[in-house]
Design goal:
This protein has 445 residues and is mainly α. Helix content is 78%, strand content 0%. It contains 20 helices and no strands. The longest helix is centred in the N-terminal third of the chain and has 34 residues. The structure holds 4-fluoro-L-phenylalanine. It is found in: Membrane.
Length: 445
């Protein structure tokens, strides 16, 4: 087997991980989930979930990846726990699964860049979304998005992922920042900031049962946890920098981009009197596109917004493909590019059904979100917290000035609060899957 690749620089790793974290989850899902869950009240819980639950869990993935220097499946064997490879397998399968429909949405985004430039959806954004989100065109664009993803991963960790994310991530921040400044100039947008930034405690207390699992699920998804992506990226570190410092930078930047997306979306919607809680899966595509149609310079705005969304989606998709590719690169003698193409083709095929209708895509999403993701994070936390704790603490402290007390505090979180939070999310997620499948009636939930 040839020498395993490593990141060229520490910053390269951080930017690639931010690229993975910042995705459709931040720019598409986050503002609309905030809208659906009562605005600022959701954000309070979400921020707590990100820092109290997501951050320690991210460090848990880093610790395994950097120590094992292997893909998620082989990492457990390398650390001397072969039976736990099944946990890595769940993560790897999740990455494969999620990418299959993430790429379908990526295809819509490509369509909307063109549609914004030509004004194609300006006369009826809902009908337009219905027409392009399912069927042959959706499948073709799903193929195109997959091809772009494969194109990056085929070039490898440094020449493909590190180099491309160094361009994509700063572009996302600059363009989104520009949109936020522009949105600040809109008449009537002020109500959007109030809705977004001043939490109503009564709403929070009254809806905590639904807000909590949504916030925790969103925290994991946005931080790319549970799919082995952060584990795989950390496996290419090959040096002893501070994992907590790198992790904190990644978490803060990711949160910043999510909040920035809200500063674009809410003033726009409020300036036009559109309810931010409406829209469901198609929200960015129907509600927001509908808003662009009504605004001056709407075409330009639409193009910029959907370019941001495409860059965000692509820099996340490559981390998902990398998880699966890493497994085969570590275990076969075939070239990385051949493997990336083959896997891309297989993932494309798996995603085709979700390009046939929104209800199928919603099912794919629900299985990932409610089952695979929390299950995988939960098992990983048990491994790090209870099975491999001593080595994990040593690994966390390598390359840092982190005190023993700091590392012990982290371990305490990984053992208790974090898995508990995940377990509750998993149970509620299973319940919502059962409701979705019609196994139990909505009324008793
Ligand atoms: N974090 C990405 C987003 O917010 O869109 C999604 C994601 C990417 C999840 C990579 C998991 C992953 F491994």
């Amino acid at each position: 087997m040839s020498q395993r690749e490593t990141w060229a620089t520490r910053v390269g790793f951080i930017i690639a991980a931010v690229g993975s974290a910042v995705g459709l989850g931040n720019v598409w899902q986050f503002p609309f989930q905030t809208g659906a869950n009562g605005g600022a009240a959701f954000i309070v819980v979400y921020l707590a979930a990100v820092f109290v639950i997501g951050f320690p869990a991210m460090l848990a993935e880093f610790v395994i990846g950097r120590r094992a220097e292997r893909n998620p499946i082989d990492a457990f064997a390398r650390l001397g726990h072969r039976d736990w490879r099944v946990v890595g397998a769940i993560g790897t399968i999740s990455a494969f699964w999620i990418l299959s429909f993430y790429s379908v949405v990526g295809g819509w985004v490509i369509r909307y860049i063109v549609g914004s430039a030509t004004g194609a959806y300006f006369s009826g954004s809902e009908a337009y979304f219905g027409a392009i989100s399912a069927g042959p065109e959706a499948i073709g664009l799903h193929a195109l998005f997959m091809a772009l993803t494969v194109g990056v991963v085929a070039f490898g960790v440094t020449d493909g992922i590190e180099r491309s994310t160094k361009l994509m991530v700063p572009s996302i921040v600059v363009l989104l920042g520009g949109l936020a400044i522009w949105a600040a100039t809109l008449d009537g947008g002020g109500a959007g900031y109030a809705y977004y930034l001043s939490p109503d405690i009564d709403t929070l207390v009254a809806n905590i049962g639904s807000i909590l699992p949504a916030a925790v699920g969103q925290a994991f998804f946005t931080l790319s946890l549970g799919m082995g992506a952060m584990l795989t990226y950390a496996s290419y570190l090959g040096r002893d920098d501070s994992l907590p410092a790198d992790g904190a930078t990644i978490v803060v930047l990711n949160t910043f981009v999510g909040l920035l997306a809200g500063l674009v979306v809410f003033p726009i919607l409020f300036s036009l009197g559109i309810d931010p809680g409406s829209g469901g899966l198609g929200a960015a595509f129907i509600t927001l596109a509908g808003a662009f149609a009504q605004l001056p310079a709407g075409r330009l705005l639409g193009v910029v917004f959907f370019v941001v969304l495409l860059l965000a989606a692509l820099s996340s998709a490559i981390s998902l493909l990398e998880v699966v590719t890493a497994y085969l690169v570590d275990n076969t003698d075939r070239s990385r590019s051949t493997l990336a193409v083959g896997l891309g083709a297989a993932i494309f095929v798996l995603g085709v059904p979700s390009a046939f209708g929104l209800s199928i895509l919603a099912w794919y999403n629900a299985i990932a979100y409610n089952l695979l993701l929390p299950l995988s994070v939960f098992c990983l936390l048990i491994f790090v917290g209870w099975v491999d704790a001593a080595d994990a603490v040593t690994e966390l402290r390598r390359g840092t000035g982190l005190s023993e007390g700091g590392a012990t505090a982290w371990l305490w979180f990984v053992r208790t609060v974090v898995p508990l939070g995940v377990l509750v999310t998993l149970l509620l997620g299973l319940q919502s899957l059962a409701v979705r499948a019609g196994l139990i009636a909505e009324a008793i939930v």
